[in-house]
């Protein structure tokens, strides 16, 4: 079951600072809702453990985060895939585009796609869509807060 959503954040930092933060596992770990661990295995690959509650189901996903289509400092795609045991699987990604709107201001635009299967998928598309939207919103709002304050 797949879905897409879009959003934007205006970040009070230069495009280079925003780009560096998007590639920093410590920043990403802080921003990913429910992230327990995020370890870099190469410049573009990380291993992650994330705990999430989706409706009545609480699941712990172990998986990988990969950065692809890198076009520094303007855009990239962040992809994640996790297996949550009997709860099922979740995979998704975000195309992230940066545009400099001032010396210390960057517009971050994102398009998120998510796909879930297994027990979680049985919860219904409305709940999954609203949860995905909430998680994406939390990720980018937290990212904005961290990067703008530095």
Automatic annotation (TrEMBL):
Q: What superkingdom heads the lineage?
A: Bacteria
Instruction: Give start-end ranges for the coiled-coil region(s).
Output: none
- Pfam families assigned: COXG
Q: Which PANTHER family does this UniProt record tie to the protein? A: BLL0334 PROTEIN (PTHR38588)
Q: What is the name of this protein?
A: Carbon monoxide dehydrogenase
